[in-house]
Automatic annotation (TrEMBL):
GO molecular function: beta-N-acetylhexosaminidase activity
Domain Beta-hexosaminidase bacterial type N-terminal: start-end pairs: 27-194
Record's keyword terms, sorted: Glycosidase, Hydrolase
Taxonomic lineage of the native organism: Bacteria, Bacillati, Actinomycetota, Actinomycetes, Micromonosporales
Superkingdom of this protein's organism: Bacteria
Protein name: beta-N-acetylhexosaminidase
Name of the top EC class for this enzyme: hydrolase
Similarity-based family: Belongs to the glycosyl hydrolase 20 family.
Family annotation (PANTHER family): BETA-HEXOSAMINIDASE (PTHR22600), BETA-N-ACETYLHEXOSAMINIDASE (PTHR22600:SF57)
GO BP: any one term: glycosaminoglycan metabolic process
Glycoside hydrolase family 20 catalytic domain ranges (all copies): 198-364, 372-513
Length: 549
């Protein structure tokens, strides 16, 4: 922690010579619409307050905005609730001076309600008309920046939260400093109206190949939230480790979790640990998607419970990086007790709608034995009340209501997956040659794989999730996800090195309308994030394609 503070302090010092101020459009992912008004910049006054609709979830977002702004600005930033019903349509959050004319130019206060709440009124309510809360959808927001206030409007707390992430990016990079910085906190004037292209925008962390403690996972969630990603897929089990405590099969975690790639001590999450992760994510409007990989990738489970193994013989613990050799016995009824017990407990711990059953690389369970297993597992998931997700290898299994396939191929001609979509499946796209964050950036990248090719920032960015798979219309695409497999990734700093700067590219594909897609523009916007990451102590790869300041 001391190290991190030192790095951050140094970076903050460098920032005293401030980089060019942000422009309203300098946001990643690119907003749906941006109307800059250079005459309407907002400067944060020392006495700024945050006013928010009387709604518990909105109030929590306001609290998080205050927590984001206090360390660097040193401002107290009290949060007050607007009177009930004071704001009519949807939720609002307003950052403003104590008096409406605290800005450099005396103009109207941000909202009528703010006028009422403020000691001195006299301005009129802003007249800009815009989309209603309905137009903004489940996650959209509208940001109005005037000299008097910054106002975020949304139909949901998630929308307010995404608006806060945009506001954060519009402040100088020094806002990321954990300690006070002497700066002018200017937000560029104008209006942003923004909502996502796809409802599912995620990243996956493989905590099975190497275990990552709760604190690391919480920080990864924070990284997702910055870029408006709303799902964290946790790959909780694999040959090298079982990472979630299961009461009904108590040896899984302590025995199956005691190993990892390379022979380290491994580890696992208790139910309380997992709940902490879920809660931290929920506050950031991120849904946790737990994966129990079946029927292959199960060596760690077999070490703990040899009765599940074909032949009932315990295999030795596995700490290498081969795939496809292990499986739970699909011909033994005990296997389905195991699947139902484990999925039942994980479902009960998980508030989100998804349960991921893996299904990849079960090379030794073929044909009808494989599809039969998957179909039973799908029914077990349905009985828990969750919606099943699986890697696209489960495509040949019968359709079940709502099922989602996660496609990780490298060639967009995949008739089996397209056929499953025709039978009703929806898709999450994770093409290995664009979205896999465990691929090396370049031949000399010190960690990572290259089986799907090298994935530099441009490759991560230059594809269209709406038109990637032959025969799959954009409407069947639920969204995108960037998986990080961790055979060679052992620390949080290495996770960050593989995430940044590619994760924001994937985030933009998931959020931004296709009409904004433009490599040159993206590269320039992304460059401005380097100083933000440095200031926040985030390790990142200085990709040579990006013009870092
Ligand atoms: C394939 S992608 C796997 C993982 C490996 C990964 C390495 C997928 C569903 N399975 O087991 O970790 O390649 O890139």
């Amino acid at each position: 922690a001391a190290d991190l503070a030192r790095v951050a302090a140094r970076a903050a010092g460098e920032l005293l010579a401030p980089p060019a101020p942000a422009r309203l459009g300098d946001v990643v992912p690119a907003p749906t619409s941006v109307a800059a008004d250079p005459a309407a910049d907002f400067t944060l006054p020392a006495d700024a307050v945050i006013r928010v609709s009387a709604d518990a979830a909105a109030r929590d977002v306001a609290g998080q905005l205050a927590e984001l702004l206090r360390p660097a600005t040193g401002c107290p930033l009290p949060v007050t609730e607007l009177p009930h019903g004071g704001d009519g349509d949807g939720l609002t959050l307003t950052l403003t001076g104590v008096t409406p004319d605290a800005g450099p130019r005396a103009v109207a206060a941000g909202t009528e309600a703010a006028d009422t709440a403020a000691p001195a009124t006299g301005g009129q309510a802003r007249t800009t008309t815009g989309p209603t809360a309905d137009d903004l959808g489940d996650e959209g927001y509208r940001l109005d920046v005037t000299p008097a206030s910054v106002r975020i409007t949304a139909g949901s707390a998630a929308g307010l939260f995404h608006g806060v992430q945009t506001l954060r990016q519009l402040l100088p990079a020094a806002i990321e400093s954990p300690t006070p910085v002497d700066a002018r906190w200017v937000v560029p004037g104008g209006v942003i109206v923004d909502r996502p292209r796809f409802p599912y925008r995620g990243a996956m962390l493989d905590v099975a190949r190497h275990f990552f403690p709760v604190a690391d996972v919480l920080r990864v969630i924070d990284h997702l939230a910055r870029y408006k990603l709303n799902h964290l897929h946790l790959h909780l089990t694999d040959d090298q480790g079982w990472r979630i405590a299961v009461d009904s099969w108590p040896a899984l975690a302590p025995v199956g979790g005691a190993t990892e790639v390379g022979g380290g001590p491994g580890g696992h999450y208790t139910a309380a640990d997992y709940r902490r992760i879920v809660r931290h994510a929920a506050r950031r409007h991120v849904t946790v998607v737990p994966e129990i990989d079946l029927p292959g990738h199960t060596n760690a489970a077999l070490v703990a419970y040899p009765e599940l193994a074909p032949g009932k013989v315990a295999p030795p613990p596995y700490t290498g990086t081969e795939v496809g050799f292990s499986y739970v016995d699909p011909a033994d009824e005990r296997t389905y007790d195991f699947v139902a017990d484990v999925l039942g407990e994980v479902a009960a711990l998980t508030p989100g709608p998804w349960l991921h059953i893996g299904g990849d690389e079960a090379f030794k369970v073929k044909g009808a034995a494989y599809t039969g297993f998957v179909e039973r597992a799908q029914r077990i998931v349905a009985a828990t009340g969750k919606t099943v997700v699986g890697w696209h290898q489960i495509a040949p299994a019968a359709h079940t209501a709502g099922r989602v396939l996660q496609w990780w191929g490298t060639n967009g001609d995949d008739p089996e997956t397209a056929e499953a979509v025709r039978r009703g499946a929806r898709l999450i796209l994770s093409p290995g040659n664009h979205a896999y964050l465990d691929m090396k950036y370049a031949p000399d990248t010190p960690i990572g794989h290259d089986w799907a090719g090298l994935v530099d920032v441009r490759r991560a960015y230059d594809w269209d999730p709406g038109a990637h798979l032959t025969g799959v219309p954009a409407g069947e695409v639920l969204g995108v996800e960037a998986p990080l497999w961790t055979e060679s990734v052992t620390t949080l700093a290495e996770v960050e090195f593989m995430f940044f700067p590619r994760l924001p590219a994937l985030a933009e594909l998931g959020w931004s309308p296709r009409s904004t897609h433009d490599w040159a523009g993206f590269r320039d916007r992304l460059a401005g994030h380097g100083p933000r990451w440095s200031t926040a102590g985030i390790a990142f790869h200085r990709s040579p394609e990006v013009p870092w300041p």
